[in-house]
Amino acid sequence: MNAYAPILVLGGIAAGFAIFSVFMASIIGPKRYNRAKLEAYECGIEPTPQPAGGGRFPIKYYLTAMLFIVFDIEIVFLYPWAVSFDALGMFGLVEMLLFVLTVFVAYAYVWRRGGLEWD
What we know:
Layout: H1 5-28, H2 35-38, H3 59-83, H4 85-113
Helix pairs in contact: 3-4
């Protein structure tokens, strides 16, 4: 338990600082509300009214999100491989090249089909 004490102390200090900052900002900070500040912020564009059941998102939104997840997972697999590259030798290099090639083929397919174009 003694080995974890510095980590727990640092975590406690970080949590205490975060709570203290939020609490003091709500007490000391300015409270000048107006109609513009209470509206939803949409990158400077006037908010449009939404239907009662919520708006429908285009399928392009979900495809882009899935593509991001696929390529993000590729990076997650590259980190442990890079750390143990010396221990894996030629086998590790060939396996990672096959993995990257597979992901690249998927990327080329999506690019060719127009999945990365914004309309």
